[in-house]
């Protein structure tokens, strides 16, 4: 099984902690919203819900030290990872995560999302009907943890990892 290799490690896609094969689509590396992105990818998984809870995760096997920070937005749950070599990678999912007093915050999605130490996951719920799940992955160099938003370079991975943007 071929894997996407990133500066932070190889990407694995897991269903309930078990690796599954996946295909990667390469996106445009240059756009007005992300002119300095080194690479941009999307992984789309088809999963037919069976009325039980499942976790569909996109994670990397760390090969370096890093810090992480949530980067959520409207219809986007995203997490940035900052490596010691001044490389930033973001992994994004289409969702509005969270519950408020046991009720979903948004009724736009029938699933939830979770921020993992080394990636992102979709939380498939017993009443989920959605069958298509996309992960966006993008990285950039010359961005460090301490200089976030310097010349807007930091935010470029946030835009590029949004799986709702066309490749």
Topology:
Elements: E1 5-6, E2 9-15, E3 18-20, E4 24-26, E5 39-46, E6 54-60, E7 66-70, E8 77-83, E9 87-93, E10 99-100, E11 103-104, E12 111-116, E13 119-124, E14 132-141, H1 153-160
Antiparallel strand pairs: 1-2, 2-3, 2-6, 4-5, 5-14, 6-13, 7-8, 8-9, 9-14, 10-11, 12-13
Strand percent estimate: 35-45%
| Structure annotation, total helices | 1
Distance between the termini: 23 Å
SSE sequence, one letter per element: EEEEEEEEEEEEEEH
Low-confidence stretches: none
Q: How helical, in percent, are the residues?
A: under 10%
Indicate the structural class.
mainly beta
Largest sheet: 6 strands, antiparallel
Q: For the CA atoms, what is the radius of gyration?
A: 15 Å
What's the β-strand tally? Answer: 14
- Which shape, going by the Cα principal axes? globular
How many structural domains does the protein architecture include? Answer: 1
**What would the average pLDDT be, to the nearest integer?**
90
Short description:
This protein has 167 residues and is mainly β.
Folded structure, characterized:
The chain has 167 residues and is mainly beta. It has one domain (5-160). The chain is 5% helix and 45% strand. The protein has one helix at residues 153-160; strands at residues 5-6, 9-15, 18-20, 24-26, 39-46, 54-60, 66-70, 77-83, 87-93, 99-100, 103-104, 111-116, 119-124, 132-141. Strands 1, 2, 3, 6, 12 and 13 form a six-stranded antiparallel β-sheet that branches. Strand 2 and strand 3 form a beta hairpin. The chain is globular and about 45 Å long. It starts with a strand and ends in a 7-residue tail after the last helix.
């Amino acid at each position: 099984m071929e894997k996407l290799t990133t500066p932070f490690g190889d990407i694995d896609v897991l269903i309930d902690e078990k690796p599954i094969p996946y295909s990667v689509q390469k996106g445009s590396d240059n756009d007005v919203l992300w002119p300095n992105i080194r690479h941009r990818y999307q992984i789309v998984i088809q999963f037919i819900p069976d009325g039980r809870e499942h976790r569909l995760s996109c994670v990397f096997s760390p090969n370096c030290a890093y810090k992480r920070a949530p980067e959520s937005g409207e219809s986007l749950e995203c997490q940035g990872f900052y490596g010691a070599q001044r490389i930033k990678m973001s992994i994004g999912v289409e969702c509005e995560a969270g519950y408020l007093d046991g009720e979903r915050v948004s009724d736009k999605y029938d699933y939830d999302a979770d921020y993992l130490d080394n990636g992102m996951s979709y939380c498939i719920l017993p009443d989920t009907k959605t069958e298509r799940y996309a992960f966006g992955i993008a990285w950039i160099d010359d961005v460090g943890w301490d200089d976030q938003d310097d010349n807007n370079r930091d935010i470029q991975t946030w835009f590029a990892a949004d799986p709702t943007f066309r490749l």
